[in-house]
Each structure stands twice: as structure tokens, then as C-alpha cells.
Design a protein that fits this description.
By secondary structure, the chain is α/β, with parallel strands linked by helices. Bound molecules: adenosine-5'-triphosphate (ATP) and magnesium ion.
Length: 248
């Protein structure tokens, strides 16, 4: 049971965005992906999801990405989502369940309610999605990623637009999910998840480093990643980044 990537290269209009990535992740694991803007992090996730053409080979529990799509829950990067969609909260969460059958069954509604409750948003069931705040929308999109009860979760900057309390609650949710799912999560600030991260991938057009937090998060690796010195503090043999690059 693993996710394997061999010689992954992705080009957009013949320009290389990601080159020769090789990685094997055992299930279940929590994998944090870090790298500067434009480094290819989202491109890597989209390859796992089978959303873009790629060279090389990807196997998700032995299956090609397109065939493994039903095993994966996805929370896309915030700036790629139309947050003005004229849908109700319940419709946003029900969509992945009904997209195959085209009918809403009682069990679909039960699952959607269960996961909206899980993220603390069940009381907004009948509200319009575009009437929610940014952080509330992130919670609903989290529920949407979870509603099919996937084995693999792909989260692209899930904490953007969240306040400290929401972020802490989402981190707590990840702690509860860890151990049963393989989670790939793109973060600019790994600090809230340092304690529950199994593996870290540093991406800058290629895979610069892959390993445990203490192996990968070193001042040398981060300087190579961001092309500048990154202030860090060390605690219990783990380096924490002070500041770091972020964007909403
Ligand atoms: N659809 C596309 N068409 C052309 N070029 C693209 C496309 N999507 C991404 N790129 C380019 O590929 C590179 C990697 O983009 P990607 O979105 O994977 O970066 P990222 O690491 O997720 O960055 P960010 O931190 O800003 O989200 C960038 O140079 C980007 O301009
Ligand atoms: Mg991105």
C-alpha cells in the first residue's frame, strides 16, 4: 500500500514546471510539501490527481491517477476556486457524492451532514456558499474533500484565509485523520503541523529533498529552497522556521 512516483516531469507549453521527481510514500502518512511560489507544488498535486498530462509514472495503490480518482479527496488552492459560486453549502459538499449517480440519496445527505459537523459548519447547511467568510469556506471545502471518505487527501494550502483558531481546529482535524489516510498537504508554514508530519518534500522545479522533518528542515536545505537565508530556531532537534514566505 503506497503511492509511487517515478521520473515525473510536467511541461506547460513545452516549458518544464516539474522535472524528474521520484518519491515513494507508504500508506498512511502525512506528507508536507513546501517550496517557493511557482515551484511546482500544485503541479505535483494535479499530477497525482490525473488532472494534467505528465511524463513518467504514478501509481496510487497500484493504479494510474485517473483510475484512482475515487480514492482521493481534493481541496484545491484557494485562488483557483470560484468562491462566488451560486451554490448552497449543502450542494458544495454533496457534489462529489452525487456526481456519479446524479441523484441525491438519503445516505449522501447523511454523509454530507456528518462531515459538515466534523468541520463545525453544519449550522450553515442551507446558507449560500458565497455568504460565508473565507475561513468558513475553507472549512466547507475541507468537508467536501472528506465526504467521499477517501483513502488519500490532497490539500493545497488549506489554511489560507483561516484565522488562528480555525487553523488550530483544522490542525486538530488532521491529527484525527492521520493514521487512517495518506495526506499530501502544501504549506508555506509547516510549524503548526511539525509534530504530526511524517515526511517533508521540498520542491523547487524538482524534488530537492525528501525525508523526515529533522532530516529535511535544515538551514542549508531551506536556503537552497528559497535562495535566501531563512531564520530558524531549533527545539528538541527540530528546526522551526521563523517567518518564511506566505501568501493568501
Ligand atoms: N496552466 C498552466 N499553464 C502554463 N503554465 C502554468 C500553468 N500552471 C502552472 N504553470 C506554471 O508552472 C509553474 C509551477 O506552477 P505551480 O502552480 O505548480 O506552482 P506552486 O508551487 O503551486 O506555486 P504557488 O506557491 O504560487 O501556489 C509556474 O511557473 C507556473 O507559472
Ligand atoms: Mg500552488
Amino acid at each position: 500500500m503506497s503511492i509511487e512516483v517515478y521520473n515525473l516531469t510536467v511541461r506547460y507549453d513545452n516549458k518544464i514546471a516539474l522535472e524528474n521527481v521520484n518519491v515513494k510514500v507508504e500508506h498512511p502518512s502525512l506528507v508536507v510539501i513546501m517550496g517557493p511560489n511557482g515551484a511546482g507544488k500544485t503541479t505535483f498535486l494535479k499530477s497525482l490527481l490525473g488532472l494534467i498530462p505528465y511524463e513518467g509514472e504514478i501509481k496510487i495503490f497500484g493504479k494510474d491517477p485517473k483510475k484512482a480518482r475515487s480514492l482521493i479527496g481534493y481541496l484545491p488552492q484557494r485562488d483557483s476556486i470560484n468562491t462566488n459560486m451560486p451554490l448552497k453549502v449543502k450542494e458544495v459538499v454533496l457534489l462529489p457524492l452525487v456526481s456519479k449517480s446524479f441523484t441525491i440519496k438519503k445516505e449522501h445527505v447523511e454523509k454530507a451532514k456528518k462531515y459538515l459537523e466534523f468541520v463545525g459548519m453544519l449550522d450553515r447547511w442551507n446558507d449560500r456558499f458565497d455568504s460565508l467568510s473565507g475561513g468558513q469556506q475553507q472549512r466547507v471545502l475541507f468537508a467536501r474533500a472528506l465526504v467521499t471518505e477517501p483513502k488519500v487527501l490532497i490539500l493545497d494550502e488549506p489554511f489560507s484565509a483561516t484565522d488562528v483558531k480555525t487553523k488550530m481546529e483544522l490542525v486538530e482535524l488532521l491529527h484525527r485523520l492521520k493514521g487512517e489516510k495518506t495526506i499530501f498537504i502544501v504549506l508555506h508554514d509547516i510549524n503548526p503541523l511539525v509534530e504530526c508530519t511524517d515526511m517533508v518534500m521540498l520542491i523547487q522545479k524538482t524534488l530537492l529533498s525528501f525525508g523526515t522533518v529533522s532530516e529535511v528542515l535544515t538551514p542549508e536545505n531551506l536556503e537552497k529552497l528559497y535562495g535566501t537565508k531563512v531564520p530558524m530556531i531549533r527545539r528538541d532537534n527540530v528546526c522551526y522556521i521563523v517567518g518564511g514566505d506566505r501568501h493568501a
